[in-house]
Amino acid sequence: MNASNVKTQTKTYQIFDEAKEELWNIRNEGGMIDIVKTIRNAWSWRGIEPTEVIAINSFGNVIVQDDAGEIWRICPEELEATKIASSRSAYELLRGDQDFVLDWEMELPRLEAEALLGEPGSGRCYCFKIPATLGGKYAGDNFGINSIDELVSASGNMAFQIKDIPDGEKVRIIAKKSN
Fold it and tell me: Structure pTM?
């Protein structure tokens, strides 16, 4: 292993250690059960039966293990839930992949959001006001802060509503205040 691999590995583990610390804070506040429940309610139509949240990044992307031991990534800005590994050990190998780490960290958007909005706070994350799938840009004027629970729920709901719409079709978003 050369020096650049060691540096990349060290940074990778630092990022994931920071995610573990945030998960610890959420667990201590009782929020982890709610996030698993929210994933079950909002994303079960994708075949996910979550049992454990493994990691959450600064934009509310969630890595979750399901009841079959498979690992999924929920990506709210893309309105996607994708199986990324067949097991926990396969996921551990994926964590060492530089492309995966770069995509997971979302460093440039995170730094821009942090400069514009400050720290999101415990149980909260940066978000895209308009998901990229619906034409939202990876840019500061499209960033906001939301609770992780609300973001996971809303993105699952939107993804379900547009799942049968062909790529390139126009959609109209109607926001209604809940009662």
Answer: 0.80
